[in-house]
Amino acid sequence: MKKVKIALLGLGNVGRGVFTILQQNKDEIMKRSGYEIEVSKVLVRDVTKNRGVAVPEEVLTTDFEEILNDDSIKIVVEVMGGIDPAKEYMMRAMEAKKHIVTANKMLLATAGDEVFEKAEEMGIMFQYEASVAGGIPIINGINENLTANKINELFGIVNGTTNYILSKMELENLDFDEVLEEAKQKGYAEADPTSDIDGYDAQYKLAILASLAFGTKVKVNDVYREGITKIKPIDMKYASDFGMSIKLLAIAKDDDGKLELRVHPTMIPETHPLANVYDSFNAIFINGNAVGDLMFYGRGAGDLPTGSAVVSDIIAILRGNIDTDNNNPVIRNNLWEKKIKDINEVESRYYIRVTVDDKPGVLGQITTIFGANRVSLKSVIQKGRKNDENVEVTLVLITHKTKEYLIKDSIDKLYDLRTVKDVENIIRIEDFN
Ligand code: NAP
Ligand code: HSE
Q1: Do 400 and 377 form a contact (C-beta atoms < 8 A)?
Q2: Which of 179, 180, 190 to mutate to test the pocket of ligand 2 (most atoms within 8 A of CB)?
Q3: Who lines ligand 1 at CB under 6 A?
Q4: Looking at the whole model, is its pTM more than 0.85?
Q5: Among 57, 210, 240, 270, which is least packed by CB within 10 angstroms?
Q6: What's the pLDDT tens digit per position in 416-429?
Q7: Which range among 270-279, 310-319, 390-399 shows the weakest confidence by mean pLDDT?
């Protein structure tokens, strides 16, 4: 049996998963890869930390140079996260002709071009399956198995933390903060969990997925982003009354060469398969012009599911020839140039929850504003009217399909009405047709 040495940069949630799988599935991995894998170095910040895995003391290091200067280390597995120093370490490892596996979506979404170019220049293999949707093989799915298709659209639940939070809010009526704490303890959340709850993590992942699905360069800021912090139990309740579920959805559509790219809380029909994706599970629903509808489903976060993708990437590298230059392309996002559709031009249905004074004529004022903006209302719901003057009540409006800028203009005008106290939430509705 051939032997190969690898190094891990990071031994947190994902690193621990990788280490555990390499130990637990040693025989399977040896047979499938043709190599006995030795983790010869692991870079961490603090070598004294208890990590819940039995890593020999001499393997842990705080000095990256020990890994860089060891020519017997053939693969560097970056699971430390962030841009600095992860990017510098990755670039230097590639220059030293080491193959790379990474789970770092932030780095790939913001500096992917640079690292992919370096990988091609150096002829090394570069794998990043774990960067999107944890254990789900979506990167290889798009890059290898769906290349016969023109992909028309893609809808993803790609953040485990927010799906976990929304699931608990919907199914167990739990409070946002309490559930976030649980998600952190389970190892789903990023080091800075605002990246999850404000939608940045999903934005990075959609930038990566869309660039591969549409074969074009996508910048992070091409993806419109909103997080889940404004979702309240009352929105969950209304969604359920309408036969809908609320998910943080990553949406990418190719509208005749113009790309619509957005991440935001979305009401979806509870009959759609994505509505039944709960807990930290992720799913990506893709429509290709040959294959039709497809859904990839699985654990999107956590040590072992993410470790599964990382270790499979290591095996994929070992199945290639690790000692000669890689001839397979790393860059797959430079095939077409596409324009990006401005969010104001996006068409959707909307759920709008407002607090108003319960006075005669208020409803008329509100519907007049929407009517003047050519926004057609499908329904207006006011619950619990008390027939008292000066009592505030909740009004929920559901629109027909309309352009975003018309909704924004209508909302601005609502604020001019003294009877409208606040526009509490606006959630886009996706009907999948
Ligand atoms: P984590 O638990 O915070 O672990 C990060 C590890 O990297 C720690 O062991 C830390 O060392 C080490 N590290 C960080 N900065 C370092 C530095 N400057 N020098 C040396 N070591 C450093 O993070 P994680 O959840 O495992 O995530 C790792 C990566 O995987 C991120 O890119 C993340 O986005 C991605 N990812 C995570 C998941 C998930 O479910 N968690 C899923 C898919 C992808 P110490 O332990 O000594 O502090
Ligand atoms: N924090 C990320 C999530 C980890 O919750 O999905 C997986 O990328």
Answers
A1: yes
A2: 190
A3: 10-15, 43-46, 49, 79-81, 85, 103-105, 130, 134, 187-188, 190-191, 301-302, 306
A4: yes
A5: 57
A6: 999 999 999 999 99
A7: 390-399
